[in-house]
Amino acid sequence: MSTCENKEKGVGVLRNPWLNRGTAFTEKQRDELGLRGLLPPAVSTRDEQVARWKSIIEQQPTGLLKYITLDTVRMIDEALYFQLVMENVEEYMPLIYTPTVGEACQKFGKIFRQPRGLFISAEDRGHVRELVANVPNKKVDIIVVTDGNRILGLGDLGACGMGIPIGKLALYTACAGVNPQHTLPVTIDAGTNNEEFLKDPLYIGQRHKRVDEDTYYELIEEFVNAVRERWPDVLIQFEDFQNTHAFALLDKYQNRIPCFNDDIQGTASVVVTGFYSAMRVKKEKLSDQRILFLGAGSAATGIAHLLADAMVEEGTPREEALSRIALFDSKGLVSSRRTDKLAANKLPFAHDLEIASSFIDAIRQLKPTAIVGVSAQPKTFTKEVIELMSELNDRPIIFALSNPTSKSECSAEEAYKYSKGNALFASGSPFAPVEFEGKTFVPRQGNNSYVFPAIGMGCIYTRSKFVPTGVFLAAAKSLAHLVSLEDLDKGALYPPLSEIRELSVSIAAAVAEYCFDKGLAQIERPADIKAAVREAMWQPSDPKFAAGE
């Protein structure tokens, strides 16, 4: 990943994905770079190259093979890869990220071909600075880091979780124009408790159980210090950490460095957007809602707190806002009457409620207007659950957010069918349009990709000192304003992902404006923030790309 001035010629150019343009090199460039004879004689346009690779991808019979083929393009020509993705973002996003990336991580050791990013293991303690020095990127604006302990809804995948930061950073570029040469995926290999991986000869990580807590946090601290020392303004996104670690790391670092946790805060932002859209349909306020979560982990409580923040903005006292939100975990309804010790993140939502051991009983007791699934327990929004929600509400809000698709609490078809077309539905994985009683519903995924790339771009552009909660509410409000009446009429609570690049301009500008208003920015405020953000967004055709600028 060299970002040095290009002095390579001949085969060296063709083997460098930052420099290679393959058959698109012009006659003049072939002479200047010593490529004459090393390429087929016909000069292709970029559009022709995109069409060729798109055809190859379409011929692959499975999502995983399409994922591998896309990754092959990236290994050959980074700019072509991003042009291909940007022109087909709605089609390829499920390959680059959920749901296909889940399978790719499960099989990462078996499909591994070329290293990308930085791997730091527990055995590297005391030497992490040296590993960071080995990274060839002279500039890094954003790092996505995982410890592989809670990959999507799939659990502990150890070092194979590297597919997640790679995929996330690809979306930072494709969706919001973050320069790919200024991104760095990182995996902290603290071991794995996945017995299947420990016995697998093709596993790419350290073959031992996860390290103790002290060793773990020392390793993370050394990593944070090392990358901040080399790239002082770098934004760090924590990704797919186990719940206890996720909250602990966010609490430790969020007021110290620019960082955020997408599972807690990015998910919250996009889900709150869905609620804002649902309120437009229901013609009600958020503070009128009663919300029950199936699941009580980092995603659930992150969403719940941001929903409470949104209610407070509407004028509701915070205690009242919290009282309108309840959680249901593996042991039942989270209540102050329970005798088991509750995790700290659940305590704000542990109200004085009757004990309920089944989700349907919790619904009968609370009579919620909305249920939000973040449980990774498939098919838990049953026919009985959806029908009861429809008895209680004219327009029940049903968000089945667990991913990949195999973990979804219900399908879009089930939500519309059992609610007789009245559900306000969003999902964590994509579902096809649904025909019901003569109407076509277009369910849209509550995809974090709507917000996290733009949030990152807004913070990178302003060189924000921190990433406070207000950033995520600003992003949610901005995205909600971009949902059209036509979208709402089709049952879509989000705009088309095909428009993500333009959506990201608006959201990143809203985030940047928040950073300027709150004194977080470390650059001078431009006269036109939106125009300045648009100008800063990287394009595959950018001539500075190959030069490493």
Topology overview:
Elements: H1 11-14, H2 27-32, H3 46-58, H4 63-76, H5 78-87, H6 89-96, H7 100-106, H8 108-111, E1 118-121, H9 128-134, E2 142-146, H10 163-176, E3 183-189, H11 195-199, H12 213-230, E4 235-238, H13 243-253, E5 259-261, H14 262-282, E6 291-294, H15 298-313, H16 318-323, E7 325-329, E8 332-333, H17 359-366, E9 370-373, H18 383-392, E10 397-400, H19 412-418, E11 424-427, E12 434-436, E13 439-441, H20 452-462, H21 469-481, H22 485-489, H23 500-517, H24 529-536, H25 543-547
Parallel strand pairs: 1-3, 2-3, 2-4, 4-5, 6-7, 6-9, 9-10, 10-11
Antiparallel strand pairs: 7-8, 12-13
Short structural summary:
Among the domains are: 112-263, Malic enzyme, N-terminal domain (Rossmann fold); 265-449, Rossmann fold.
- End-to-end C-alpha gap: 13 Å
The SS-based structural class is: alpha/beta
Q: Rounded to an integer, what's the Rg over CA atoms? A: 24 Å
Spatial shape: globular
Flag low-confidence runs.
Answer: 1-5
CATH class of the domain at 265-449: Alpha Beta
Counted by DSSP, the helix tally is 25
Beta fraction: 5-15%
Q: From the 3D structure, determine the CATH topology of the domain at 265-449.
A: Rossmann fold
Mean pLDDT: 95
CATH-defined architecture of the domain at 265-449: 3-Layer(aba) Sandwich
Strand order of the largest sheet: 8-7-6-9-10-11
Task: Assign the CATH superfamily of the domain at 265-449.
Answer: NAD(P)-binding Rossmann-like Domain
The helicity comes to 40-55%
How many β strands by DSSP?
Answer: 13
User: Main β-sheet: number of strands, strand sense, barrel status?
Assistant: 6 strands, mixed
